[in-house]
Structure formats: C-alpha cells, structure tokens
Amino acid sequence: MLRIIEQKTGVQVSGSTVCCVLRRNGFTRKKIQVVAKQRSISYRSHFMAEILQFSPHQLVWIDETGSDGRSHERNFEYSLRGLPPVCHRMVTCGKQMSAIAAYQMRD
User: Which residue of 8, 47, 106, 107 is surrounded by the most CB atoms within 10 Å?
Assistant: First the structure.
C-alpha cells in the first residue's frame, strides 16, 4: 500500500501514518470473512432436508484440520467500524496435510 501511495502521489509515508489516517476515518483492522464463490443455498437446503431424516445417534461427526497452500493469502483487512471485511474468492486447495477425528453419539 505504501508503494501505491508513493506511485500515485509522489509522497513517501510510513506505515504508522497510514494506520493513523485509516483509524481517524473510522476504519479498523479485522480478520477477513471469506465467502466461497462455490457456495450454493440450494445444495445446502437439500443437504439439510436429507440429514434431518436421521436421528443424532445414527450420525458420525467428522472434523478435519489441516494446512495447504493458502497460507500466503491475506487474513486481515481494514474496513469501516461495524462492517466486516468480506472477500469473495475461489476456495481451492493445494497439497494438503490433514488430521481427521470422528465422534459418534450413543443412546
């Protein structure tokens, strides 16, 4: 951002100056809320209709944690106070390392 300001205006500013100006104008730094472009309300509704046919003890809950090539993507951004910074992007995975756990309820 500092380079862009210098290229557009010819003025060199420090990072702390930019942060002060943003804060003074109502911007705060927050974690980005990523919304997958592949998200589909109809698929989600269909899944919920199917899953509600089962009782909790018939389900096995699986959780995955891992790491992939997205670690270079930005996690924080500035937005106006009270508004979340939202980023709509394709959610893709590179080579991934995973750990998987499963949990099942009993009667």
Answer: 47
One-letter identity of residue 81: R
Count of domains forming the chain = 1
In a domain, 78, yes or no: yes
pTM of the model: 0.39
Question: Is residue 1 one of the residues assigned to a domain?
Answer: no
Domain that holds residue 48: 30-104
Does a structural domain hold residue 35?
Answer: yes
Alpha carbon distances (Å) from 92 to 68, 71, 98: 9, 12, 15
Asked whether residue 83 is domain-assigned, the answer is yes
Burial class (CB in 10 A: 0-12, 13-18, 19+), 34: middle
Q: What is the pLDDT of residues 27-85, one digit of tens each?
A: 888 888 777 777 788 988 999 999 999 988 888 888 877 766 655 666 777 788 888 77
